[in-house]
């Protein structure tokens, strides 16, 4: 993986100027590389990782992991039906898996009812969906490589040889 | 109670007061730390925990767990083509600190001279004195902190017994290419010196492959190779290092080690073994991170008009403050008080390095960025009239 990606993956707010310093490259060359990655779709976007566990406000959302068994369609296989499912804005992630079920969804909703309604009214009735299993998420410990807790303080003594 | 004359003669560190000042202050960004800011990779910590669960709480053999010595031997062979027998040429020590103490005690007769290129890591001189030897400091400032054969020639005499090399170096970060080492080696062999080579930062070399001194043709028999897990694997608190050398010297060192230390903590040894087995990719990742920080810090210092020799490894920059009006302790104290940034005054590494400060970049990018902004502010405020 390009080192620029390694840097941005950890911290998307580092500027091209700073990256140029870190890698001893010119600023335009760093900017061009980033632009190229964006164009190629290697870099899809930049987002902030929010620890919603700490917000606990009224707008907090519930998440469910949903296993979906589907019947693949002729010619297009799973892709067509997957598209019908992942196009719902409630679906945050959608993966095709090997094993006892086919699609794994991460679905977000305002509360348990909205998620249940989504499953009962939108997902389950779809023609090619043979069955669903919904797991509500109770607690998040780690997401996308980030451990969700307060930043740990530096445990080193402040000065040493 | 009378303290021995030998211990009394060892000078207490002149910057102890500055250290206390730092430790008593809050909200400080410290670039004064001599250890990685990473936490030991999880699988290594887990191996330590698991060993405790399994009941590994005993002593080990004096030289260290055989499987760990075997692991070290294999690692050195595969990475550097360096061959040491796990039976009698490797000793597991409490960090390089103990290894260094052992080797000095094992070789020094009263009044023997030990050559120490300077600026130097703080323990080299005092440990030499505690063993009854006399440290001879070789100032490398004019050679951009690199030891050259000429400098050795100038200081060597019949009493000289050994030389302590340290590369990549604390506090300068400089290291040597194979070619440079060959020239140093010829001078060392010519005067029949024992080479004590502290290569604890070897894995943190950024622009070329680290070359252990013992791999140079003809050098192995007069070299004691010291390294360990602290810096490469972010394992400073575990205290695991190792000494490799000819059987005779390892035997002598083991003799002292068995009476003073007995063995390194078994938990730490088990964890170190795991490090060798599974953590190489973590080392590579940390090295890339340090390298990026080096580039950033060196570049920023240049923007601020602070001169420094570009470090080849470790995580330090030895920066010149000669353009300011301050001594190194003054500079560090004012920077601490006015901007809450801690650095180590150059005199910690030899009285003659008053024109320098050591900046450690074992700190997060955010911290480095903010600290350099504060240093910039400090310099502007304190510009020489």
Q: What topology does this entry show?
A:
The complex is a heterodimer of chains A (161) and B (385).
Chain A: H1 3-10, H2 16-23, H3 27-40, E1 62-70, H4 79-86, E2 91-96, E3 103-109, H5 112-123, E4 129-136, E5 142-143, E6 146-147
Antiparallel strand pairs in A: 1-3, 1-4, 2-3, 5-6
Helix pairs in contact in A: 2-3
Chain B: H1 5-9, H2 16-23, E1 29-30, H3 42-53, H4 66-80, E2 90-93, H5 95-107, E3 113-118, H6 124-130, E4 134-139, H7 149-155, E5 160-166, H8 178-190, E6 194-198, E7 223-228, E8 241-244, H9 247-260, H10 266-278, H11 280-303, E9 316-320, H12 328-339, E10 341-342, E11 344-345, E12 356-360, H13 365-381
Parallel strand pairs in B: 1-10, 3-4, 3-5, 5-6, 6-7
Antiparallel strand pairs in B: 2-8, 7-8, 9-12, 11-12
Helix pairs in contact in B: 3-10, 4-10, 5-6, 5-9, 7-8, 11-13
Explain what you see.
The complex is a heterodimer of chains A (161) and B (385). By secondary structure, chain A is an alpha+beta fold. Chain A has 2 domains: 38 residues, no CATH class; 85 residues, Lrp/AsnC effector binding domain/regulation of amino acid metabolism (RAM) domain (Alpha-Beta Plaits). The radius of gyration of chain A is 21 Å and the shape is extended. Chain A starts with a helix and ends in a 14-residue tail after the last strand. Chain A is built from 5 helices and 6 strands. In chain A, helix 2 packs across helix 3. The mean pLDDT of chain A is 91. With 385 residues, chain B is α/β, with parallel strands linked by helices. Chain B has 2 domains: 134 residues, Aspartate Aminotransferase, domain 1 (Alpha-Beta Complex); 238 residues, Type I PLP-dependent aspartate aminotransferase-like (Major domain) (Aspartate Aminotransferase, domain 2, 3-Layer(aba) Sandwich), CATH 3.40.640.10. Chain B contains 13 helices and 12 strands. Chain B has a 7-stranded mixed sheet with strand order 2-8-7-6-5-3-4, sandwiched between helices. In chain B, strands 9-12-11 form a 3-stranded antiparallel sheet, with helices on one face. Chain B has a two-stranded parallel ribbon with strand order 1-10. In chain B, helix 8 links the parallel strand 5 and strand 6. In chain B, helix 5 packs across helix 6 and helix 7 runs parallel beside helix 8. The longest helix of chain B is centred in the C-terminal third of the chain and has 24 residues. The N and C termini of chain B lie far apart (52 Å). The interface between A and B is medium-sized, with 17 and 26 residues.
């Amino acid at each position: 993986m390009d080192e620029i990606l390694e840097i941005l993956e950890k911290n998307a707010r580092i500027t091209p100027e700073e990256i140029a310093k870190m890698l001893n490259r010119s600023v335009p060359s760093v900017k061009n590389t980033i632009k190229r990655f964006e164009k190629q779709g290697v870099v899809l976007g930049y987002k902030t990782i929010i620890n919603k566990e700490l917000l606990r406000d009224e707008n907090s959302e519930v998440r469910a992991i949903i296993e979906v068994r589907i019947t693949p369609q002729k010619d297009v296989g799973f892709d067509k039906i997957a598209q019908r499912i992942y196009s719902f804005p409630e679906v945050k992630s959608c993966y095709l898996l090997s094993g006892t079920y086919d699609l794994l969804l991460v679905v977000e909703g305002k509360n348990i009812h909205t998620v249940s309604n989504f499953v009962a009214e939108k997902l389950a009735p779809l023609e090619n969906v043979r069955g669903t299993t919904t797991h509500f998420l109770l607690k998040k410990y780690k997401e996308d490589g980030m451990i969700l807790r307060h930043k740990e303080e530096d445990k080193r003594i402040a000065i040493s040889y | 109670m009378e303290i021995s004359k030998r211990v009394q003669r060892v000078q207490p560190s002149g910057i102890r007061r500055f250290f206390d000042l730092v430790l008593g202050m809050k909200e400080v960004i410290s670039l004064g730390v001599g250890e990685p800011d990473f936490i030991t990779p999880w699988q290594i910590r887990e191996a330590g925990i698991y060993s405790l669960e399994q009941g590994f709480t005993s002593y080990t053999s004096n030289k260290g767990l055989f499987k760990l010595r075997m692991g070290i031997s294999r690692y050195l062979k595969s990475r550097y083509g360096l061959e040491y027998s796990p039976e009698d040429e490797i000793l597991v020590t409490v960090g390089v600190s103990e290894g260094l103490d052992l080797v000095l005690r094992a070789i020094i007769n009263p009044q023997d001279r030990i050559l120490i290129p300077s600026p130097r890591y703080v323990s080299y001189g005092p440990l030499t004195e505690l063993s009854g030897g006399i440290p001879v400091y070789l100032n490398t400032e004019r050679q951009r902190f690199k030891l050259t054969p000429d400098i050795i020639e100038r200081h060597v005499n019949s009493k000289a017994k050994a030389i302590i090399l340290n590369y990549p170096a604390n506090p300068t970060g400089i290291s040597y290419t194979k070619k440079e080492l060959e020239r140093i080696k010829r001078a060392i062999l010519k005067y029949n010196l024992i080479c004590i080579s502290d290569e604890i930062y070897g894995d943190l070399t950024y622009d070329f492959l680290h070359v252990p001194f013992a791999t140079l043709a003809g050098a192995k028999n007069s070299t004691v190779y010291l390294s360990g897990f602290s810096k490469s694997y972010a394992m400073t608190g575990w205290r695991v290092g190792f000494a490799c050398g000819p059987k005779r010297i390892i035997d002598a060192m083991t003799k002292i080690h068995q009476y003073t230390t007995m063995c390194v903590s078994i938990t730490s040894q088990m964890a170190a073994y795991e490090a060798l087995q599974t953590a190489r990719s973590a080392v590579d990742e940390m090295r890339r991170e340090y390298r990026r920080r080096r580039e950033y810090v060196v570049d920023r210092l240049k923007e601020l008009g602070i001169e420094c020799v570009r470090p080849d490894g470790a995580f330090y920059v030895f920066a010149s403050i000669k353009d300011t009006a301050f001594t190194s302790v003054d500079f560090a104290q004012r920077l601490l008080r006015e901007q809450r940034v801690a650095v180590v005054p150059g005199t910690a590494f030899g009285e003659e390095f008053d024109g320098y400060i050591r900046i450690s970049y074992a700190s997060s990018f955010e911290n480095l960025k903010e600290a350099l902004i504060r240093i910039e502010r400090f310099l502007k405020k304190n510009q020489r009239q």
